[in-house]
Amino acid sequence: MKLWNGVSKFLFGGECLGCQRSDLPLDPWLCPNCKRELKRLAKSPRRPNPDVLCLYAMTPLTKSLVHGLKYGSMPGLASYLVKIALQEEESSEVLREWGRKLAFVPVPLHSARMRERGYNQAEKLAQTIARCSGGVVANALKRKTFRISQTQLSREGRASNVAGAFEWKKNFTWPEYHVPVIVDDVFTTGATTTACLYAFEKRKMGGAAKVCTLLREESATARIDFAADNAMEWNV
């Protein structure tokens, strides 16, 4: 354990990605306290609608982890986060309800973003979800245009920014009888995943498609209610 902690500190700076403390052992990204918090959050996946599963709510902890995944050159966080989430029955049960044959379709990055980042975080997520659920990864889509970051835009701006941005890859053959599941890191307004679903609708496959993301970014009111519910001590 001491050897692993030394390697962890060398590779990751010795700070917990959640609380930034450097005086506790890491696993290699979280201290024991933040790991317990992440497991607690995994027990409450978010469901904006029956066809969407978000493995975690967005909190300061989960937001910092996704930031590390996307911008911190830490692709291993994808497997780490998915495995913890799918150890909980609720998320695993949703995937089982969606069908025995699921094909996980990562939201594609534009080639310029891929060169900059070195990997597609949605693809990393899709790979682990597929392994954990017995599904397959289907890189069926490509991004046609390079738009500005969704984080800078309003709800209306996000929808306009990604409208028509994705199309079916030439000569891609869909795995027969598999239900499409679009995979992304964060579900906010649904604009990005809706644009991906449009590409499936053009191939008469949109009606069966689902969406699975790592986080659900909710309205301010919803976040306040979520925090209050989790802080409440229930005497049953």
TrEMBL record:
* CDD domains noted in UniProt: PRTases_typeI
Q: What domain of life is recorded for the organism? A: Bacteria
InterPro entries linked: ComF/GntX_DNA_util-trans, PRTase-like, PRTase_dom
**Similarity-based family:** Belongs to the ComF/GntX family.
Q: Which protein is depicted? A: ComF family protein
